[in-house]
């Protein structure tokens, strides 16, 4: 801590000027050197320092300033619109997303007699004891789940095509 010689305000060591009156800090610490008398109550405090605007001399304009030069910019040529990035991958993805489930459902319908005992045998001990309606419903639900699973490769390629298009735009 140091004490300002002008207004006797205590200031922190890091400050180079007094926080109260903006007087510069001298090299002496509190208690060192000659003691400074405290200002009396009747003594007027110094006005705070303020930054003054630099005075600018105005010159009489002899003529109007010249207008800024016009710049003729040549627009950059637009690239020819080409094929979108990832277009081929998206088309393959859509084809796979449509054709794989259709192929699976066609196989499930045409090969019902061969595949049904195997699939129902995975879940039930004796699939022959089930009523035909329940076995059709269970087989249909399992075929639908398998069709949804076969959508994954096609939808993944389709999403990859969209990603490629977004990366190319950057």
List keywords for this structure.
single chain; 170 residues; two-stranded antiparallel ribbon; 3 helices; 44% helix
Task: Give the secondary structure arrangement, pairings included.
Elements: E1 2-3, E2 10-11, H1 87-110, H2 112-123, H3 132-169
Structure summary:
Among the domains are: 1-33; 87-169.
Q: What does the model show?
A:
This protein is an all-alpha fold. Among the domains are: 33 residues; 83 residues. It is 44% helix and 2% strand. It contains 3 helices and 2 strands, in the order E-E-H-H-H. The chain has a two-stranded antiparallel ribbon with strand order 1-2. The longest helix is centred in the C-terminal third of the chain and has 38 residues. It is elongated and about 110 Å long.
């Amino acid at each position: 801590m140091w004490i300002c010689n002008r207004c006797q305000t205590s200031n922190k060591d890091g400050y180079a000027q007094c926080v109260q009156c903006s007087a510069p800090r001298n090299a002496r610490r509190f208690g060192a050197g000659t003691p400074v008398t405290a200002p009396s109550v009747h003594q007027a405090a110094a006005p705070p320092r303020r930054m003054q605007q630099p005075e600018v001399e105005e010159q009489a304009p002899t003529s109007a300033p010249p207008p800024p030069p016009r710049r003729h910019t040549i627009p950059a040529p637009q690239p020819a619109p080409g094929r979108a990035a990832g277009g081929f991958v998206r088309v393959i993805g859509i084809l796979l997303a449509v054709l794989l489930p259709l192929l699976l459902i066609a196989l499930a319908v045409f090969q019902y007699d061969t595949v049904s005992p195997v699939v129902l045998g995975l879940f039930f001990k004796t699939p022959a004891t089930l009523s035909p309606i329940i076995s059709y419903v269970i087989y249909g639900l399992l075929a639908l789940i398998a069709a949804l699973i076969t959508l994954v490769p096609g939808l993944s390629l389709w999403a990859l095509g969209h990603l490629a298009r977004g990366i190319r735009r950057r």
